[in-house]
Design a protein that fits this description.
single chain; about 550 residues; Rossmann fold; Transcription Regulator spoIIAA; 3 domains; three-stranded antiparallel sheet; 17 helices; 23 strands; about 30% helix; globular
Length: about 550
């Protein structure tokens, strides 16, 4: 397989395909033959135990939107529920032993109704191919004539590979509601933006555009609370907290920024929020129906617009003031540049248990190499927001990425004389080298400064080149990938089991061993807080070095 060719294809295509009008309100529903649809979640991969569990929002939204056209969700199959999260099977890969979690493929296939017309499978991580491909084989063996549609991060970032390496019939790139509904409606696949499929002669056809996305996402129904197993889901937070009844929710979509390390397929796109009223009503409904007392916001940019974030936080704060014991959390972090003193106070009033600030590096030059927004002002803004968080009484922890290798310069203003010794030129394109020893020491000193301000935790993560990211493309270009056969490499790892040989980037200025040593040094110097598993009666956060990968799944 031509890796360079794949890189070019992954970088191509339109980044946005927004539409104004909801197709479900424009279509002649009388001419659509209703389909029986089964939605399936992929089994999971963990090193030792099931560390968290998704509430499968993505499948919930896709199924709920398909129902607007008259289709029926006849089965929703999540192999992690009904005790599936405790079913652990050794899984040998080329470079390491890990474990598959979830009910076996045979049981998943058994639960698919015989009269199914269309099957949708969510592949939320790059590593979903390890467990997903065997499941696809099992489904196609049992239902050879039924179209099998794959969506999620894996399908969006490695579209062609998924079709070449599996027996999937159709891939949806990007948001799946409209494309999946049009597939279910029986429209010609060549006319549907954002799909790639296997033609009758065996060749692959790809529409280069992303899937259509609604500009006004309020017209998308709430994510299938009537067909998802909500009682199972709310009993265990996606981040592992069994002490609270948790609702996983997303209040906005998209990300207008282009950080090169980020695995979000929809980064660099228009940010589209649900209205505060929509989110408030959804929270109230789930309190009434499921007794939730913890809201876990999955947004990547919850605070991008304060005028929208404030009413949501005010409502949760009002519930608490009225005596309802509710808390909220933001496990993906809260964008530092969009924070304010008012927001930090509201976060505290809304019962936010911990705030994660994605600092990433204490060296401005390394931030430039990451394409971090407002790299020049990022550290000063971090100091300001850290003080606000501490003054508000919020438990605060900061994310850092150690051993970052570098990246492309995206703005001419960063071509400064003081950076010349760190630049690599390739034709007319300039790249910045990443973290060296001096940069690492600068970052450690910044961590010490944050601790003096009152920040309680520092969470280091080792740079990981997720396929489909600009970071991966840069590492591939300069031969910095530790493993050349990407399909055999696990990217979603538990740092509690990290070893130097698992580090996936090696550069002339940072070996695998040195990257591990930097991570270990930062872990030992500072207390870490991250996604702590808690049980009934254990209500306090405790420092931990067990941190999960920051590859962000499709929800």
């Amino acid at each position: 397989m031509d890796r360079k060719k794949l890189t070019i294809e992954r970088s191509g295509g339109n980044r946005e395909n927004l539409i104004m009008f909801d197709p479900s309100e424009q279509s002649d529903l009388k001419n659509i033959k209703p389909k029986n649809i089964t939605l399936v979640a992929s089994p999971w991969v963990f090193d030792d135990e099931a560390e968290f569990q998704s509430q499968q929002l993505g499948l919930g939204y896709v199924g709920a939107y398909a129902e607007k056209f008259g289709h029926q969700i006849v089965a929703f199959i999540d192999p992690m529920i009904d005790g599936g999260n405790k079913i652990k099977v050794p899984l040998e890969t080329k470079y390491r032993l890990t474990h598959r979690f979830g009910h076996p493929d045979s049981e998943i296939v058994r639960r698919i109704p015989k009269d199914v017309d269309l099957i949708g499978l969510n592949a939320p991580f790059t590593d979903s191919r390890i467990t997903g491909y065997p499941l696809i084989d099992a489904i196609k063996d049992a239902f050879p004539s039924i179209p099998l549609v794959i969506g999620g991060v894996l399908a969006t970032t490695l579209t062609r590979q998924v079709l070449e390496e599996s027996r999937a019939d159709i891939i949806v790139k990007g948001e799946g509601e409209i494309a999946f509904a049009r597939i279910a409606n029986g429209e010609p696949l060549v006319q549907i933006p954002g799909v790639m499929f296997r033609q009758s002669d065996g060749s692959l056809y790809e529409n280069p555009s992303r899937s259509e996305q609604l500009r006004n996402i309020d017209s998308i129904p709430t994510p299938g609370y009537h067909f998802r197993p909500m009682e199972d889901y709310v009993s265990w937070s996606p981040r592992g907290d069994r002490a609270r009844r948790t609702l996983s929710i997303i209040s906005s979509r998209g990300c207008p920024f282009t950080c090169e390390f980020c695995s979000i397929p929809e980064k660099g796109q228009r940010w589209r929020p649900f209205t505060p009223e929509r989110i408030i009503n959804e929270i109230d409904m789930c309190i009434e129906r499921f007794g939730v007392n913890h809201i876990e916001f999955e947004d990547d940019n919850f605070t991008l617009r304060q005028d929208r974030a404030i009413p949501i936080l005010q409502h949760i704060a009002h519930l608490r003031k009225s005596g309802y014991p509710i808390e909220c959390s933001f496990p993906n972090g809260i964008m530092i540049d969009k924070m304010s003193s008012e927001l930090t106070l509201l976060l505290k009033q809304a019962g936010t248990d911990i705030v994660y600030l994605p600092v990433e590096s204490g060296d401005t030059r390394v931030l430039v190499s990451m394409d971090k927004p407002n790299a020049d002002g990022h550290l000063d803004k971090t100091r300001e927001i850290a003080r606000y968080c501490v003054e508000a009484g919020l438990l605060t922890s900061c994310f850092f990425i150690v051993a970052y290798p570098g990246g492309a310069i995206t703005k001419n203003k960063y071509l400064r004389p003081e950076y010349n010794q760190h630049l690599i030129y390739d034709g007319d394109k300039a790249y910045m080298r990443g973290e060296g020893e001096e940069s690492f020491e600068t970052t450690l000193n910044f961590c010490r400064e944050l601790r003096q301000i009152g920040v309680q935790g520092i969470t280091p993560l080792i740079a990981t080149p997720y396929p489909g990211t600009e970071l991966y493309h840069v590492c591939d270009k300069f031969d910095w990938l530790s493993f050349k056969d990407e399909k055999d490499v696990l990217t979603t790892v538990s740092y509690a089991h990290m070893k130097p040989k698992y580090v996936q980037i090696v550069t002339p200025y940072c070996s695998q061993t040195r990257a591990y040593e930097r991570w270990q040094e930062m872990s030992n110097l500072f207390p870490g807080y991250h996604n702590v598993r808690r049980f009934e009666g254990d209500r306090d956060h405790v420092p931990t070095q067990e941190v999960a990968s920051r590859e962000k799944p499709s929800i």
